[in-house]
Amino acid sequence: GIRLPPNCTKILFHWGLKDTLLQKALVTHTLFFTRYETGEYLGQHVWDEGVMKETRGLFMLTTHAILYELLHDAAIKAGVEVRYRSDVREIDPKTPTVKLASGEVLSADVLVGADGEFGVSRAFVAGDSARGTRTGLALYDSTFPGSHVRQHADFLYRDNGIIAVFGCGRAIVSYPIPGSDDLAFQWYGPDEGPEGQYGDPPVEDVYTIAKPNHETLHLAMSAVRKAVRISIRDHDDLEDWVSNDPRLVLVGEAAHPFPPGTIQATAMAIEDGGVLAKLFSHLLEERQVESFLDAFQELRQSRVRHVRLREFSNVLYMTLPEGEAAEERDRSMRAKAAAGINVLEGASDGDATKNWDEMEVIFGYDCEDHADDWWIKWGVLRERALGGMSGDNAAGPGLLDFSKMTVNVSSTTVDEYKP
Predict the structure, then answer these.
(1) Are 138 and 194 spatial neighbours (Cβ–Cβ below 8 Å)?
(2) According to the model, what pLDDT value does residue 351 have?
(3) What is the chain's mean pLDDT, rounded?
């Protein structure tokens, strides 16, 4: 399962995928919070309708397979050629050329490295700094049949809700999967064994590792299917996402690996695609490519760094060890729940409120608008300075062209107004 926040779905809507997404994903409105060790209910948070409307997106639940199929079909419809079983093994150090596992060589004007945290693109650009360090936490990604706990989880189906279970060094995120009675099940726990990553076979027995004590968790986790374990790594921010020799740009997890299972992990990759597409929609000449790649990095790096730090903080917040910080978190949530208000906002200045305030800003961000702003403020000026644009093209989309405007000034005498 994956969660698609409003800053992500608004892009998909703009790409003409809203109707399809509404058919293949669930709209969610509510978060529920409980304690891992005791099952204690800590409260809930309902997404504010006004805030969601302002974002021009929806918070949705779907699966990786559904999103993959949706984007694949849209790309094919747009004329993209998709080649299967074509693993890239080498990138030429001087020209934008790649060698496939089959031995075939392909060339391009620009290489887009979207091959993830462990792909050849990230290693080519970043070298030894490409690999982060294991944190000791892992995400165990799986599903389980909702019928097994229907009497305990009916509220999730009724509200398309998300449940977050906070524990000491452990946490759970679970939610319904569209078109199925199954629930997505993502368990954060100790990272035991060799490094795990997406694509590994599902062989982990979460129930044996977790040893849940609470009755409801015991019942649910006994039905969890074998899971894929994805080690959570901490990475230094890459200084460069772009190589100009050869022309290569990193996007998604290749540029900025996120903690697996987090809200914005998928969204940031979609935003990367939205910004890159917007910039290159203004391409007139090959000489613009380098400036567009530099603009992409400039627009994306600060945004992604901020959001990635937030997502790491959220994982740590859910898995706080027993102590004062965890007690204060739970106490604040209980008090807000007792007062009948959303537990992630309110009068207090606790971490939960701060997190929610920042989340509102993250949800409201429009990456395509920011790309358009760059073009209007800097791209058009640069093109005019280089003499590369004239007439209607010089204005750019939505920008008035004053180059042919004339102004006539005349003087008129007006009698004094008398009531």
Answers:
(1) no
(2) 56
(3) 88
Reported residue count of the chain is: 419
Of 207, 205, 163, give the one whose Cα is nearest residue 184: 163
Is the pLDDT assigned to residue 353 strictly greater than 60? no
CA distances to 9, 125, 360, 403 from 354, rounded to whole Å, are 24, 35, 10, 48
Give φ, ψ of 140 to 5 degrees: -105, 110
Pairing of strands 162-166, 30-35: parallel
The whole-model pTM stands at 0.88
DSSP 8-state secondary structure symbol assigned to residue 204: B
Q: 100, 106 in Cβ contact below 8 A? A: yes
Round to whole Å and give the CA distance between 166 and 330. Answer: 9
CB-CB contact of 52 with 362 (8 Å): no
Determine the Cα–Cα distance for residues 346 and 343; give it in Å rounded to an integer: 7
The DSSP H or E segment spanning 11 is: helix 6-14
Residues 9, 165: Cα–Cα separation, whole Å: 25
151 touches 216 (CB < 8 A): no
Secondary structure class of 221 (helix, strand, coil): helix
**Encoding tokens for residue 13?**
């809507």
